[in-house]
Amino acid sequence: MKPGEHVDFDFQLDLAEMANSLDTADVVALYFPLLRKTLIIDARSSAVDAPMIKIVEMVATPEERFRSLRRLRPRFPRPESLTLIPWPKYVQSLVNLGMWDHLVARFVNLGFTDTVRECEGCLEELTAMEKEEIRRALNGENYKSLWESKPGGWTEADGDLEDGTGV
């Protein structure tokens, strides 16, 4: 493993590269597959528009993200690049691993206090969404267990069940 990398639950993240992207990229799409949401961080600003941080729905392709960004920021040209970062971990791990500090520090250093407040609001909202999604999973709302996936349940014909008990 290289310096700056972190492994957790079989997901390898290059934290140094991620920190660099959060520090320098014009636009970052940090997406949360579990939540089916993306945190758009657009550091571009003008005399009229401050930088933007916003939670949006996930999209299927980078081209869709460019189109949605165009609708969100019509006074800005298409960004030269878009950094896509999957975050397959808990939201709080962004804070624990120091990535959230990179994100917020960028806006602090640029002097955009309103955007800093929006960052904190997005973190709270993502945390609440994650808690709700976990609650739904535990209660079986919008989820099916493996045992429910087949009408009639599990039988000997479904696998190597020596005594028919399924254990």
Description:
There is one protein chain. With about 170 residues, the chain is an alpha+beta fold. It is built from five helices and six strands. It has helices at about 15-25, 60-70, 90-95, 100-110, 115-140, and strands at about 5-10, 10-15, 25-30, 35-40, 50-55, 85. A hairpin with a 2-residue loop joins strand 1 and strand 2. The radius of gyration is 21 Å and the shape is globular. Mean pLDDT is about 85; it is low at about 1-10 and about 160-165.
Helices and strands, with pairings:
Blueprint: E1 5-8, E2 11-14, H1 15-24, E3 27-32, E4 37-42, E5 52-57, H2 62-72, E6 83-86, H3 92-96, H4 99-110, H5 113-139
Helix pairs in contact: 1-4, 4-5
Task: Provide keyphrases for this structure.
alpha+beta, 5 helices, disordered N terminus, disordered C terminus
Which range best describes the helical content: under 10%, 10-25%, 25-40%, 40-55%, 55-70% or over 70%?
25-40%
Q: Quick one: how many beta strands?
A: 6
Secondary structure category: alpha+beta
Strand content: 15-25%
Short description:
This protein has 167 residues and is an alpha+beta fold.
